[in-house]
Amino acid sequence: MTRQEIVDRFMDTASKVGAEVMRVTSLEELDRAVLELLKDTDSIYCPNRTEKERSLTVVSERGTDDYADASASVEEVFAAVAETGCLVCSSQTGAPVQGGLLPPHHVAIVDSETITADLEEFTELWPGEPPTNITLETGPSRTADIELTLTIGVHGPERLSIIVI
Amino acid sequence: MIRGIDFRTAAAAALKDRSLRDAMRNSTDVFTTKRAEGIAQVPFEEWRDRASEIRMEVIDNLPEYVDRFAASATRTGATVHRARDAASACETVSGILKDRGISHVVKAKSMVTEEIHLNPHLEKSGIRVVETDLGEYIVQIADESPSHILAPAIHKDRRQIGRLFADKLGFEYSDDPTVLTRMAREVLRKEFLTAQAGISGANFAVSDTGSIVLFTNEGNGRMVTTLPPVHVAVFSVEKIIPSFKDLPAFIRLLPRSATGQILSSYISIITGTRKAGESTGARELHLVLVDNGRYEIARGEFKEMLKCIRCSACLNVCPVYRVIGGHAYQSTYPGPMGIILTALLEGMESAHELLDASTLCGACKDACPVKIPLPDLIRRLREVRAEMGLNPRIETQAMRAFGVAAGSPWLFSAAETLAGPVWPLTRLFGKGILDRLPRPAHKPLRRRLA
Q1: Nearest to B236 by CA among B330, B339, B115, B151
Q2: Hey, how many other C-beta atoms are within 10 angstroms of the C-beta on B246?
Q3: Of B293, B348, B311, which Cα lies nearest the Cα of B55?
Q4: Cα separation of A122 and B359, whole Å?
Q5: Is the CB of residue B198 less than 8 Å from the CB of residue B105?
Q6: Average pLDDT value for residue range B2-31
Q7: DSSP character for B208?
Q8: Which among B134, B152, B271 is the nearest to A131, CB-wise?
Q9: In whole angstroms, what separates CA B32 from the centre of its chain?
């Protein structure tokens, strides 16, 4: 599979499992996309760790350090998997993995170069010891525990937006 | 005399419960339809073969894999505890908590903690345990036990849950699942942020890296394992898989077999304690490896049962489970897998009645993602039961009488002639099964054909 095919497959699968997926080609477009997604959000948690994260104006205006209290979180994730449409969050980046879990809206930035074709390739990301926490995130938090009625947003985010750059 | 499971009485009662039967029909239909969709486009047979092989490799070398897992996990900073039976597993967990002065824990769903009755033990030790899976939470505040290993509260309808939340949590009554879910989110969020420790199970434990793997849809598994400073994971020894490279096989199979999803919303792979430069991970990770009979099962003729990955596909297709639901089994694990596990874990004397909770139709065998020959194991266990002399006396006597009659043409035709007139007398032996049998024909088929 070419890089383009991998990205297309990821975007297709991720949108089928309940995420909103969009694609941008520059940091400026990324900034605009995040601004649009979070235009009504008052407090935003962002680890401010990567170049992409630091370039977001919405974070410099409405950022908070407290992910437990934020209305949204925005972060660049470690990788993604095209086969399953899932994000790969990893503690090795230094960012708190749970930062994307507590706020009701999770905005994930995916560098297209980090998308693996399938789960086998995903396991090869760590030839040595894996980091303390690897989380595969697929769509929003959900439950069907009451009469098997699908309900979105139990303990984790009720909305997942993915921006591929 | 051991007080065993009275399956017949409980099943008869479940059959009379109309709302239970509606709930069961609805939920098992949804599960089986979704599963069929989930496996339609993929090489499912190939995946099953591979997964079955991986599981057998571990079971055939269980002690070695447990040692290897323990060594890897210790290297990553986790503390490994081994528990021989339910009592020692409970003592281990309460010991860890009490030594640290912990009195409030949040818990993610774990069937083995139901098996060892961990919650009542912790509560007796003065520790408040809050279940955080929505279904498990509903069952906990209703003071009941789970009726399905995946969807613990499917025996309850939305109105019952609405009344429960109004009574126990003080919310205004609602029967809207979205509103009810939001109530639980609000109550449980506070618990997550204040708990001193989290208790989870593990869907898999990876021998070469010492990692544990958890699948959840709600996100509660992630909360329990990342927010409190102490994380205690309790799981049975056969959950081990050899290598990190084996994960894709099970990541593909488990959610599809369980709910028909491609993936669960969240899969957490946890390896040891928080390291320098990281902002995620418990400060202390305790792994409690529970034997409770597994080593012995792994050495015996029923070892294939240990391949089970607790997906519940066999429950949803079972014509018995679909009608009576999980509670009638009166055991931690219901359905076809539950019949076998209960007989093996709790012993034939108390569990043998459950062996009748199967029609041996084979639907479970076809659904099983790791190819456990469930009907064959049940049939073999029935043989063991007969060898142990545990069959009901009336059944043994009836079969013996039939054997004598079938051995003599004269006796057989005499019995045929007498069957009609004598039939009403069978009522003297009690109602029940005889009432449901058809009356003997005036002229038996054998004579009509002669």
Answers
A1: B115
A2: 21
A3: B311
A4: 43
A5: yes
A6: 85
A7: T
A8: B271
A9: 17
What separation, in Å, do the N-terminal and C-terminal C-alpha atoms of chain B show? 50
DSSP character string of B90-136: HHHHHHHHHHTT--EEEE---HHHHHTTHHHHHHHTT-EEEE-SHHH
Q: Indicate whether this complex's ipTM tops 0.90.
A: yes
List of residues 6+ apart from A78 with CB closer than 8 A: A88, A89, A90, A92, A93, A114
Helix (H) or strand (E) holding A80: strand A79-81
Question: Is A96 in contact with B135 (Cβ distance < 8 A)?
Answer: no
CB B145 within 8 Å of CB B333: no
Best residue in A146, A149, A159, A162 for a mutation probing chain B (most B CBs within 10 Å): A146
Nearest to A132 by CA among B273, B412, B427: B273
For B16, other C-beta atoms within 10 Å of its C-beta total 8
The one-letter code for the residue type at B274 is: R
Q: How far is Cα of residue A87 from the mean position of the Cα atoms in its chain?
A: 6
Per-residue pLDDT tens digits for B303-358: 999 999 999 999 999 999 999 999 999 999 999 999 999 999 999 999 999 999 99
Structure tokens at B39: 């496996």
Cα B152 to Cα B154: distance, rounded to the nearest angstrom: 6
Residue B258, token pair as written in the block: 């369980």
CA distance B438 to B63: 54
CB of A160 closer than 8 Å to CB of B265: no
Question: Which of chain A's residues have a Cβ under 8 Å away from the Cβ of B270?
Answer: 132-133
Contact B152, A143 (CB under 8 A): no
- The answer to whether B266 and A137 have CB atoms below 8 angstroms apart is yes
Residues B158-168: tens digit of each pLDDT: 999 999 999 99
B251 vs A contacts (CB less than 8 Å): 84, 119, 136
CA distances from B409 to B189, B413, B423 (A): 75, 6, 21
Residue B366, CB-side half-sphere exposure with 13 Å CA sphere? 11
Structure token pair of residue B42:
């993929």
Interchain CB distance below 8 Å, A143 and B76? no
Q: What is the pLDDT of residue B117?
A: 95
Q: Tell me which residue of B89, B153, B151, B450 sits closest to B290, measured CA to CA.
A: B89
Chain B interface disruption, residue of A86, A89, A132, most B CBs within 10 A: A132
- What SS3 state is found at B223? helix
Side chain identity at residue B353, one-letter code: E
Distance of CA B212 to the CA centre of its chain: 20
Strand-pair category, A72-76 with A44-45: parallel
